[in-house]
Amino acid sequence: MSIEVKISLPGLAGIILIIASITVGIYVFQMDSSLTYTWIVPLNSVQVIHLYFKQNIGLALVDVGKGSNYITVSSGAASTLTLLPASSSYAVITARGVSIYVETVNAIGTLIIVAAAWIAVRRRSGLKLAIIMTVLSMLAASNALAQIFYLNTGLGSGYSVNERGFSIPFSQLEPVVLGNETYRYSYVLRDTVNGVALVNLSIQVRDQYIPLIIVRAYNNQGSIDIPLSTSIPSGGPITYSAASYLSSGNLTIYVLSMGQLENTTLNYYKVEFQRISDSPPILVTLLPLITLVASFASCILLLRITMLRQ
């Protein structure tokens, strides 16, 4: 006695579609769970960061004068992170783990396609089944592509960073001799700022002369003097320091002194930020959900039409 199982070509296509839908769902899950975002963000203004509903969010606040601190911001499904301005720091945000939003849409979408394909295979055959399988394949592909597109937008968000730093003794600089009884020598250093930049500088004075230091930023809106802080450690050199965000323009450091500065050093560090792209617009964020709702409605309509017409 033998049992013969016959499967039509459309029926086989339906089974393949079910397997393919589950496979694609697993692929989206693996891609999402292994995808880690790293964004570098200046803190010259309030920043609102879209976190893609990732489970684990980390934040490093990098103070250009003091170093960095890393903290875990949240463990859950946070959607956004709001950062307040900080005059001497920038932020490095990491988002890793599974996106609750994407995986919820992924699971429901896969279940809808599999259920619709299973019902169609059980109750339809021939040309009608072939049509249903074709439409369901297109819906499954659109669901997966919408989720992958949404996830990939996070790879191009944030800012690129260009760093520049140096240390130079004033003995290597050629001062301008002034006809002035108060200050006889003038040192002038200039740098160009492109876009948004965070500048940190310190001048360590080891000479007998106490200089006058002016740090001035120029841009299209005019000029502004950056305030300096003074540190006089026990047994150490007097240190003048400043850290500030600047916009496109020029930075000029004026150092005026009664005598030549042979043992004074300038330490300079600049981080320039160039925006790559903004956070995804609301339409892109909602795209996986919109595609899911459209797929569900299409499946219901498709099955009703094909089932009612015998």
TrEMBL record:
It comes from Desulfurococcus amylolyticus (strain DSM 18924 / JCM 16383 / VKM B-2413 / 1221n) (Desulfurococcus kamchatkensis). This is Uncharacterized protein. The chain crosses the membrane at residues 7-29, 99-120, 127-150, 282-303. Keywords: Membrane, Transmembrane, Transmembrane helix. The keyword Transmembrane helix applies.
